[in-house]
């Protein structure tokens, strides 16, 4: 709702009240309409201030209402009434003014912001556009180029930047409502014609056609099939080329298309999934609501390779003191230089001072003596990690949390090697660790809920989407990825090319297909793991037996490509060819195509025609099927956990909502039917056999994704 009071005798004060972010629900909109009427009809009131309760102006339209039937007064006429008011309307912005919240403020005649306020139009991240007049008012207020930037990216700006751009009229360090009331009194009675943004002409840059074409090219390049960024450009173009009323009509049309597209629903699901993963739980029942994190003020990072350096930067940027430890002098010096320049670059981007003095460097592991938490990031080798953990257990103060950054190793085995296994958790960072948004927090059988809570809180502080998952080979992300990549290899054997597979996946919305991604990350990484597991066997055998491991189909194609020294971009050759080692532009490679032909001939395989639909179904449904197994095994607590991991760590397109959400939109019966079909066609691939949980969900009427947790809970309680 909204509370109406009078301030300083002559100012009507409307306070939005809808915790926690004062979202513009139907009730709030109705209350705004009612209180504005009261203020405008009260002859004693000379001007009006709109503010939000609890230091937060407004987080925008109530996203939860988007799924259902819209009730209550619509936003657009409400904001028009505010703009048309004959008394000065002043927005007092503390905390967040986002989306519809900022659009409401743009309807006011003046905007006063606190120095810590954050303003933006992030609708594009929810698959929408600022359709309460924001796409038409903002360009009129700050010009087309800046409006395009903010609206197409959803970028949130500080009060200082908002002042510089002309979004707000004044920034205060003091009480914002007091400042706004004082300001409102000072402008009472002044003419308002020049303050109604909708009446401003939109400043049109001389080269506006080129500007919009460039903006469209840019969003099409990065949107990967997402509709909202394109619609945002179209809406701003309407602001620049049409009168306000017609621009509003265009905004409405574009919004209607987005609203019913399915992409908005997917992105809004991701928004809530991101929040849901914070409410983590462990199979014991312990979770976020029962486990208190330990305070972490000082942390250590052991091992300053690529991952260790990124983790050091991420920790220092969070405000922690960090001891960065590397035993080799030369590597320590190199790492120090690299960390310094990463921090300096980051600070320059943010316009802040680099956090260089938060880090101390040491060659001595005993420097961990006074830290609260250690993140070990040495080479992925169990014996080496066990030795490091043995030393940490000797030198750390009691209660220090011991985290291992690993993408594959067994967290329980590592914990067993320490006297306090309850203090051990996995923290699977993604490279580059200071940039990538995902963190898998891996709890072992004996990890204490407090240790998990501490790692989860630290992840959140680092700005990561942190997901608590159980311990198994590959955890959640890599366990599912293995099957996706494996299907891509099988498709090559059956007649596909890397270009076909990558083309289908990139058209789906991945930034890179399997093979371009493998070239980027290095083919040798997986080869080393397969060799260690005894799967990759040197030398070329032929016939079917060469393609079987432990009774299941195996493709040695990746191993054979590696045997040629083709490790991807770094060697200038991989699944594609590159101009030179390190170059990034992938070109089709005739060598690879003839290698595939010879391979098929040697193994008696007849190439068949494969279409993009089959590529998608094989790769994506195999991945989704493993996701169901992960849920069945209790490694992830719900589909949201898996979806957040895939959207934030594996390039899954957000507008498709993550793999489990995607499966629900395809329809679980269809996913089941296609998996059954492919399993029948490939009985030597047991992973294609549909998971029991998937069958169970289909048998129980394919409930919507938000109800899967109930089915899984029931399933686990029956075991
Ligand atoms: C015809 C006109 C139609 C449309 C035009 C307008 C469209 C819009 O306005 S769309 C909404 C645009 N706003 C946003 O995208 C902001 C979304 N919110 C956030 O980014 C953040 O929540 C925040 C920065 C405002 C606050 O962050 P933080 O303090 O970290 O809190 P949480 O994110 O954990 O949020 C707390 C709690 O609030 C729920 N919530 C937040 N924003 C909204 C919202 N706009 N509508 C509904 N609910 C919202 C959030 O889900 C959390 O609750 P749960 O933990 O229960 O999920």
UniProtKB/TrEMBL annotation:
Quaternary context: Monomer.
CDD domains for this protein: crotonase-like
Source species: Gasterosteus aculeatus aculeatus
Example GO BP: fatty acid beta-oxidation
Catalytic reaction equation(s): (3S)-hydroxyhexadecanedioyl-CoA + NAD(+) = 3-oxohexadecanedioyl-CoA + NADH + H(+); (3S)-hydroxydecanoyl-CoA = (2E)-decenoyl-CoA + H2O; (2E)-hexadecenedioyl-CoA + H2O = (3S)-hydroxyhexadecanedioyl-CoA; a (3Z)-enoyl-CoA = a 4-saturated (2E)-enoyl-CoA
Keywords: Fatty acid metabolism, Isomerase, Lipid metabolism, Lyase, Multifunctional enzyme, NAD, Oxidoreductase, Peroxisome
InterPro entries according to UniProt: 3-OHacyl-CoA_DH_NAD-bd, 3HC_DH_C, 6-PGluconate_DH-like_C_sf, ClpP/crotonase-like_dom_sf, Enoyl-CoA_hyd/isom_CS, Enoyl-CoA_hydra/iso, NAD(P)-bd_dom_sf
Keyword Nucleotide-binding in annotation: no
Protein name: Peroxisomal bifunctional enzyme
Cellular compartment(s): Peroxisome
Pathway listed: Lipid metabolism; fatty acid beta-oxidation
UniProt keyword Isomerase present: yes
Superkingdom of the organism of origin: Eukaryota
Alphabetized GO MF terms: (3S)-3-hydroxyacyl-CoA dehydrogenase (NAD+) activity; delta(3)-delta(2)-enoyl-CoA isomerase activity; enoyl-CoA hydratase activity; NAD+ binding
Family that this chain belongs to: In the C-terminal section; belongs to the 3-hydroxyacyl-CoA dehydrogenase family. In the N-terminal section; belongs to the enoyl-CoA hydratase/isomerase family.
GO cellular component: peroxisome
Annotated ranges, domain 3-hydroxyacyl-CoA dehydrogenase C-terminal: 474-578, 615-702
Enzyme Commission no: 1.1.1.35, 4.2.1.17, 5.3.3.8
Pfam families: 3HCDH, 3HCDH_N, ECH_1
Domain (3-hydroxyacyl-CoA dehydrogenase NAD binding) ranges: 298-471
């Amino acid at each position: 709702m909204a509370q109406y009071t009078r301030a300083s005798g002559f100012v009507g004060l409307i306070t939005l009240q809808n915790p926690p972010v004062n979202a513009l629900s139907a009730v709030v909109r109705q209350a705004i309409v009612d209180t504005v009427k009261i203020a405008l009809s009260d002859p004693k009131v000379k001007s009006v201030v709109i503010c939000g309760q609890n230091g937060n102006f407004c987080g925008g339209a109530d996203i939860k209402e988007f799924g259902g039937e819209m009730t209550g007064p619509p936003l657009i006429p409400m904001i028009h009434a505010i703009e048309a008011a004959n008394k000065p309307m002043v927005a007092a912005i503390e905390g967040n003014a986002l989306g519809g919240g900022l659009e409401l403020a743009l309807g006011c005649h003046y905007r006063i912001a606190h120095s810590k306020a954050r303003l933006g139009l992030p609708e594009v991240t929810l698959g929408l556009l600022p359709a309460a007049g924001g796409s038409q008012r903002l360009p009129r207020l700050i010009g087309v180029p800046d409006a395009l930037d903010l609206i197409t990216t959803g970028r949130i700006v500080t009060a200082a930047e908002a002042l510089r751009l002309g979004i707000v009229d004044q920034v205060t360090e003091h009480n914002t409502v007091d400042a706004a009331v004082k300001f409102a009194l000072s402008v009472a009675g002044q003419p308002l014609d020049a303050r109604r943004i909708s009446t401003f002409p939109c400043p049109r840059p001389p080269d506006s056609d080129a500007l919009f074409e460039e903006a469209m090219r840019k969003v099409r390049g990065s949107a990967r099939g997402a509709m909202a960024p394109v619609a945002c450009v179209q809406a701003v173009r309407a602001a620049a080329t049409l009168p306000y009323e017609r621009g509003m009509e265009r905004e409405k049309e574009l919004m209607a298309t987005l609203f019913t597209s399915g992409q908005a629903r997917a992105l809004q699901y991701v928004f809530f999934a991101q929040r849901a993963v914070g409410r983590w739980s462990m199979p014991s029942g312990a979770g976020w609501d029962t486990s208190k994190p330990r305070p972490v003020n000082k942390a250590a990072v052991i091992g300053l390779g690529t991952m260790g350096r990124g983790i050091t930067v991420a920790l220092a940027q969070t405000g922690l003191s960090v001891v960065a430890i590397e035993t080799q002098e030369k590597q320590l010096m190199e790492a120090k230089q690299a960390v310094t320049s990463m921090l300096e670059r980051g600070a320059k981007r943010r316009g802040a001072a680099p956090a260089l003095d938060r880090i101390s460097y040491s060659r001595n592991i005993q420097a961990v003596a006074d830290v609260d938490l250690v993140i070990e990031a040495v080479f992925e080798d169990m014996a080496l990690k066990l030795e490091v953990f043995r030393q940490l257990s000797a030198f750390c103060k009691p209660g220090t949390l011991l985290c291992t950054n690993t993408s594959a190793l067994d967290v329980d085995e590592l914990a067993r090697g320490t006297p306090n296994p309850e203090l051990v958790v996995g923290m699977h960072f993604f490279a580059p660790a200071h940039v990538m948004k995902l963190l898998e927090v891996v709890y072992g059988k004996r990890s204490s809920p407090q240790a998990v809570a501490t790692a989860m809180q630290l992840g959140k502080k680092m700005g990561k989407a942190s997901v608590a998952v159980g311990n198994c080979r590959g955890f959640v992300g890599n366990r599912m990825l293995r099957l996706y990549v494996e299907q891509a290899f099988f498709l090559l054997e059956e007649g596909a090319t890397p270009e076909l597979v990558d083309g289908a996946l990139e058209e789906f919305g991945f930034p890179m297909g399997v093979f371009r991604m493998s070239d980027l990350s290095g083919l040798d990484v997986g080869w080393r793991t397969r060799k260690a597991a005894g799967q990759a066997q040197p030398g070329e055998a032929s016939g079917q037996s060469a393609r079987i491991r432990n009774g299941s189909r195996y493709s040695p194609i990746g191993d054979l490509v590696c045997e040629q020294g083709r490790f991807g971009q770094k060697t200038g050759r991989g699944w594609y060819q590159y101009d030179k080692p390190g170059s990034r532009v992938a070109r089709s490679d005739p060598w690879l195509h003839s290698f595939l032909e010879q391979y098929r001939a040697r193994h008696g395989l007849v190439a068949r025609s494969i279409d993009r639909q089959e590529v998608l179904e094989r790769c994506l449904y195999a991945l989704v099927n493993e996701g169901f197994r992960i849920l069945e095994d209790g490694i992830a607590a719900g589909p949201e956990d898996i979806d957040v991991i895939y959207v934030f760590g594996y390039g899954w397109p957000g507008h498709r909502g993550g793999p489990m959400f995607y499966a629900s939109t395809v329809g679980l019966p269809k996913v089941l039917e296609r998996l059954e079909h492919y399993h029948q066609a490939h009985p030597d691939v047991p992973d294609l056999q549909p998971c029991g949980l998937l069958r169970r969900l289909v048998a129980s009427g394919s409930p919507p994704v938000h109800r899967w947790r109930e089915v899984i809970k029931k399933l686990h309680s029956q075991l």
